[in-house]
Amino acid sequence: MVDILFLEAFLCTLLILNSCIETTMSSKTCPLSYGVFLTKNATVFKIHAPRSTRVHLVIFNLPEDETGVEYEMTKQDNGDFTIELVDAGVGTIYGFRLEGPLNDPNLIIADPYSKAA
After folding, report:
1. Which pTM does this prediction carry?
2. Domains of the chain
């Protein structure tokens, strides 16, 4: 069973973009490597979880939802996990489910790189 206080804190986490929008007309680069970033055509989610074997991005429709739609993220050799979605944006409610020997796959964590929760 998920701790109610944790669940309430998690479900209040909204997608806060890192103020970096990549466009072909701008050379602005993002100062942060992890978190959520808008590109011209999609939203990129990136988390560093080197001890995890799999990471799922979980998208919720409403803050009070207990379950959401899960997307398996792509693992890179350096322990980063990424996924690019075209249908996510400002206001998206999300979290991460980590799997691995040190992770509890029943927990959904808030984005450790978010600027607000």
Report:
1. 0.73
2. 4-99 (2.60.40.10)
Q: Which two tokens stand for residue 76?
A: 């890179």
Categorise residue 33: left if φ over 0, alpha if ψ from -120 to 50, beta otherwise.
Answer: alpha
Per-residue confidence in pLDDT tens, the chain, 117 aa: 444 444 444 433 444 333 333 333 344 455 558 999 888 899 999 999 999 999 999 999 998 898 999 999 999 999 999 999 998 888 889 999 999 999 999 999 999 988 766
Closest CA to 114 of 89, 87, 95: 95
